[in-house]
Specification:
alpha/beta; 8 helices
């Protein structure tokens, strides 16, 4: 069964898919998987590292609309963040989204200790994935889910991240063969 969105969201996603390479967007299948994971796990607080033009954020926010959740999304480039905000508004999910603009590491470091997330999507600077993981771990709830993109397409750049997850006994993970590959890690306690 395909996900059925309203006409505006469907048209917006289709338009963004035409600029996928320009904005480094995830493939549609990854968006569908993320959307499904959020609904299956009844996610309430999601964090996205790497907003770009809002394509993946729309998949996340549409699922969060069903679960009653919220999305915090971080983008380094102000121009991309502006495009994403327009797309969130156009698709009726802006009230669920807290867009933050700036360096992801500095932004995560600014989170108060009690800010918690039960879902994190990572799709930003590949060499910094391991640092994102180390910084977000204290902000994860028990039973949290992490999804990271470009695991097979950028294998060398993300290897330290894979090694860190592999060595962490709190996480069970699998690499899923999507275009670019995703790592799905579940915090089991």
């Amino acid at each position: 069964m395909d996900i059925i969105f309203d006409d505006i969201t469907s048209e917006t996603l289709a338009g963004l898919e035409e600029t996928q390479k320009q904005f480094w967007n995830i493939p549609r299948v990854t968006g569908g998987l993320i959307n499904m994971f959020i609904k299956m796990m009844n996610i309430k607080n999601a964090l996205e590292i790497g907003t770009s033009n809002g394509y993946s954020g729309l998949w996340i926010a549409k699922a969060l609309k069903e679960t009653g959740g919220k999305l915090t999304t971080i983008e380094y480039y102000e121009k991309r963040q502006s495009i994403a905000i327009e797309n969130f508004k156009k698709c009726g999910v802006m009230e669920l989204v807290r867009p933050l603009q700036g360096d992801a590491i500095e932004t995560i470091l600014s989170f108060p200790p009690d800010e918690k997330f039960d879902f994190v999507f990572i799709d930003a600077n590949k060499r910094q994935y391991v640092e994102y993981f180390r910084l977000i771990k204290p902000h994860l709830t028990p039973k949290a889910l992490i999804v990271a993109d470009n695991i097979t397409s950028h294998a060398e750049k993300v290897q330290t991240f894979i090694d860190a997850i592999d060595c962490d006994e709190e996480f069970q993970y699998e690499i899923v063969e999507t275009p670019g590959g995703i790592l799905v890690a579940y915090r089991g306690n």
